[in-house]
Amino acid sequence: MTPKDLTSYLGLAAVYLLSVNVLLGLLMSARYNPWKRWPHRRINLLMLHNWTAYIALGLAVLHPVPLLFVDKPVFGVGDILFPIHSPEQPIINSLGAVTLYLLIFTVITSIYRAEIGRQRWEILHYLTYAVALLFVIHGAATDQHLDNSPMDLLDAEKVGIILCGVVMAAATAVRFRWTARHPKFQPRRIPSSTGTINAND
Ligand code: HEM
Fold first, then answer.
1. Is the CB of 59 under 6 A from ligand 1?
2. Tell me: the pLDDT tens digits for 79-125?
């Protein structure tokens, strides 16, 4: 396996795991209860959501590292951390870097959500939709051969990434329609001395 292959596989694994993570997040925000509904089992959606995020973040951090060991083109540490002048596809690579930094921000703000306050954190957490859009664009548009070959959207890896995007977009539409039609599944706000709190917490 070459360093280029390793970069692709790490990136693909991160995309699939983050897509699962987004679907779990959508289920939680629609108050899906796997005990009352299918599969009628006690499943800790929050724990799965957290761990898929942590593992995906680890994969996403590692994903560009093998590029440092590619003979041609030569990537330096700066081309990975701030790829605006990277040797290949600087714009697409920069989108990847922005995605990674937003992902780090999302995970850190989620760890400190009690301190940030539920309502403020929820607004920050909507950034995850931007993260999802960015990782689909970055994954689908990168040239995995790093040789200026034309974009091949029919390549199996690219089809998989685009399918993740389609599934997430469809699930997001269903989530917002569902919560609009079933207000009882929306987070209930009740007044408190320090503002409003979520009655579902
Ligand atoms: C370990 C870090 C994370 C924690 C603790 C966390 C926690 C949560 C919680 C508690 C919810 C349910 C919100 C509600 O009750 O309405 C949620 C929703 C969601 N999460 Fe996360 N999350 C984390 C990371 C991520 C990441 C990395 C992504 C994707 C890149 C993501 C995507 C989503 C999405 C799309 C929703 C649905 C948002 C909505 O429309 O309300 N989360 N998350």
1. no
2. 999 999 999 899 999 999 999 999 999 999 999 999 999 999 999 99
Ligand 1 near 29 CB (within 6 A):
yes
Summarised one tens digit per residue, pLDDT across range 29-86 is 999 999 999 999 999 999 999 999 999 999 999 999 999 999 989 999 999 999 999 9
Residue whose CB lies within 8 A of the most ligand 1 atoms, among 45, 105, 110, for a mutation test = 110
Q: Which atom of ligand 1 is nearest to the CA of 103?
A: 27
Ligand 1, atom 41: closest residue by C-alpha: 29
Please give the distance, rounded to the nearest whole angstrom, from the Cα atom of residue 120 to the centre of ligand 1: 13
* Ordered DSSP codes for 19-59: HHHHHHHHHHHTT--TTTSTT-S---HHHHHHHHHHHHHHH
Q: What's the count of helices (H) and strands (E) in the chain, helices before strands?
A: 8, 2
**Confidence bin at 147 (pLDDT 50/70/90):** confident
- Which long-range contacts does 20-27 make (Cβ < 8 Å, 24+ apart)? 20/52, 21/49, 21/52, 21/53, 21/56, 22/128, 22/132, 22/168, 22/171, 22/172, 23/167, 23/168, 23/171, 24/48, 24/49, 24/52, 25/49, 25/125, 25/128, 26/171, 26/172, 26/174, 26/175
Residue 144 above 90 pLDDT?
A: no
